[in-house]
Write a structure and sequence with these properties.
This protein is mainly alpha-helical. The chain is built from 17 helices and 3 strands. A 3-stranded antiparallel sheet has the order 2-1-3. The protein is elongated and about 100 Å long.
């Protein structure tokens, strides 16, 4: 017998989610409608073990995103303009067609033209967007679908545009905190390569002509420079291979979970990632619950939005607890991953019936935490990196010029 996930609604509008076993799809529908329930969704659960399937899907989605990479700012602007035009009374087809005609980004212009054509052919907006998974993520499509079902698409688009603006702002702040350290590290690596491949070999030739003995530290540095020059191609190949292997491992379930766990434990950067994930989690959860999306469908979307396999697994575990009858805050608490502040706000929201509002407040709190961490990082890391770069370059220069301090004895021995 096959297992099906179902979502039904009774005559009073109350929804019910769960699983049912049946010989086939028709038999499952008969069982559900026998009690006067109206079936909204019914999907078969695939119980077969498939390792390559999900792995190849992850690879394909990553390639699709890289191939159709659209700046988030363009999607934010499109969503805001679409919400305004749709609220003003324009049809979706005409609004998207107009925005596509004015779009400057060539790839995004092509995508919007395709979406507009599909709507003209009879597809609804969510189905048209779903044909471009590398551009519009699962959350975007689910929010639009919820708006279509509930009939308040204009409000959903407004909420979605505000959410994307907040996400874009958070991403820019995180990137601004990471850009300077990355630039300084790349600059340091480039300086070391110039020293090892160009400057030190020239000095070693001069010292060799003098015929003088070199200090041990300088001798070791010259030996390392010669070894590095001989193996630089092999080192680049090894670095590329390791990067590729780590990337492939990150696309597997267990490997990705391990790497994401390590990321969250990094000093300073791990805390910044965690606060950013919690901000995304709370904001998305609040919007979906407020839009009337069922809890289990919401958690299925949340695991893809957080973009971290540690939190994705915690959300999966929470979904199982909710399916077993636990409320949301209790299910989140049993995962032992989510912080106490979030759990307290979720518990209060369930008691007062204002879960979406309190989740939004939690998102604001974590946004402030991200801002504070970014300010702290830029205050502390910048001078530390400057000192590190200065110290490394100073060490290389001192080791290079160390024999000059004994130039007199070198010349004497050369004579």
């Amino acid at each position: 017998m096959a297992v099906y996930n179902y979502l039904t609604k009774n005559s009073e509008g109350a929804r019910k989610e769960g699983e049912i076993r049946a010989d086939n799809l028709d038999n499952a529908i008969q069982k559900l409608t026998a009690n006067g329930q109206m079936v909204i969704t019914l999907k078969e659960v695939d119980d077969s073990f498939d390792f390559l399937g999900p792995f190849l899907d992850e690879i394909q989605l990553s390639i699709e995103k890289a191939k159709n990479r659209i700046p988030l700012s363009n999607i934010v602007f499109f969503t805001r303009q679409l919400a305004t035009m749709f609220s003003a009374g324009l049809t979706l087809e005409r609004a998207i067609q107009s925005l596509g005609a004015e779009e400057k980004h060539r790839k995004f212009k092509k995508v919007l033209t395709s979406v507009s054509d599909n709507i003209r052919k009879g597809l609804n907006m969510s189905e048209s967007l779903a044909r471009h998974p590398g551009v519009f993520n699962n959350l975007f499509i689910a929010m639009v679908k919820a708006g279509e079902v509930s009939g308040n698409l204009n409000e959903i688009l407004e909420q979605l545009s505000s959410y994307l603006e907040n996400l874009d702002d958070t991403r820019r702040k995180v990137k601004s905190a990471m850009n300077y350290p990355i630039f300084m590290i790349v600059f340091l690596i480039c300086m070391l390569m110039v020293m090892l491949l160009v400057i030190i070999p020239k000095f070693s030739q001069v010292y060799a002509q003098l015929g003088a003995g070199l200090p041990p530290a300088t001798r070791k540095m010259i030996d390392f420079s010669q070894w590095f020059a001989s193996n630089v191609g092999f080192l680049f190949f090894v670095g590329f291979s390791i990067t590729s292997i780590v990337w492939l491992i990150s696309k597997t379930q267990r490997g990705g979970f391990t790497l994401d766990s390590i990321k969250l434990k990094l000093p300073v950067f791990g805390s910044l990632m965690e606060q950013s994930i919690l901000n995304k989690f709370c904001k998305t959860f609040g919007i979906l619950i407020g839009a009337g999306v069922p809890v289990l469908e919401t958690t299925a979307l949340l695991r893809k939005v957080v973009d971290n396999k540690v939190y994705a697994k915690a959300i999966d575990d929470a979904s199982d607890y909710i399916r077993d009858g636990y409320n949301i805050s209790s299910a989140l608490r049993r995962t032992e991953v989510f912080p106490s502040i979030l759990l307290q706000l979720a518990s209060t929201g369930e008691e007062t019936g204002e879960l979406d509002d309190l989740l939004d407040r939690a998102a604001v709190y974590y946004q402030k935490q991200v801002d504070a961490l970014v300010d702290r990082m830029t205050t502390l890391i910048e001078p530390l990196l400057i000192l590190l770069v200065g110290a490394v370059i100073a060490l290389m220069v001192v080791l290079t010029y160390l024999p000059v301090f004994h130039l007199g004895s070198a010349l004497q021995s050369g004579l």
